[in-house]
């Protein structure tokens, strides 16, 4: 069974169509990257999967279940945003535990989830710090830690590295991939950076103006681009 499916999904803002019939199937454990130029509809697609945006037509399924109409918290997903959205007045540990605290989880249960997540992300020695005391890369790790402790069926990332400097961005690509190799959680990752897509994805979905131009493994797209748009987009420097 596919972990995530988009079936003929459409979205208009007012009379303006921005997603024009999208079909994507994502297998369990796959790391899939949605890539395409700014404004092509990547974030809208991800936000619809997260339940942050209604869909105008079609169906989205997570683990075989149609999620159209389900609120974000009713979906088995965790989203990592570009701007991290950490709570400034909470420690790293409390930031990571926040979703569990909201659910009323016991302290022992919270520790049982936060500690291994912190360990995986190299945050153990920073658990008592506040976000303002952290570097950009460390904040990014806390944002990922928050997603990990929820142990969701699907991770969603929207341009998680675009606020980082070039050197850190390259290091974080490798960290996110390592994390995926370790946890094997199905991941949908949005970027406009084709280098990021080519180096990180199991499967790339190339989008352009609200449609999917091609879906394939990085080498497939490189060797056999379906059309001129894919060829020039994949082939152009970042
Ligand atoms: P991307 O993430 O690929 O840069 P978006 O999904 O953010 O693209 O946007 C796709 C299109 O939808 C753009 O033309 C954008 O202006 C439009 N759009 C996105 N969100 C809204 C909104 N809330 N209201 C109106 N138009 C929107
Ligand atoms: Mg976007």
What does this molecule look like?
It is a peripheral membrane protein. Keywords: ATP-binding, Nucleotide-binding, Transport. One of its GO terms (molecular function) is ATP hydrolysis activity. This is Sugar ABC transporter ATP-binding protein. Its main location: membrane. There is one protein chain. The mean pLDDT is 93. The chain has 238 residues and is α/β, with parallel strands linked by helices. The protein has 8 helices and 10 strands. 37% of the residues lie in helices and 27% in strands. It is globular and about 50 Å long. The strands form 2 sheets. Strands 6-7-8-3-9-10 form a 6-stranded mixed β-sheet, sandwiched between helices. A 4-stranded antiparallel β-sheet has the order 2-1-4-5, covered by helices on one side. It has helices at 42-50, 92-102, 107-121, 136-149, 166-183, 194-200, 218-223, 228-235; strands at 2-13, 16-27, 31-35, 57-62, 65-66, 77-80, 154-158, 186-191, 203-208, 211-216. Bound molecules: adenosine-5'-diphosphate and magnesium ion. Adenosine-5'-diphosphate (ADP) is lined by residues 13, 18, 36, 38-44.
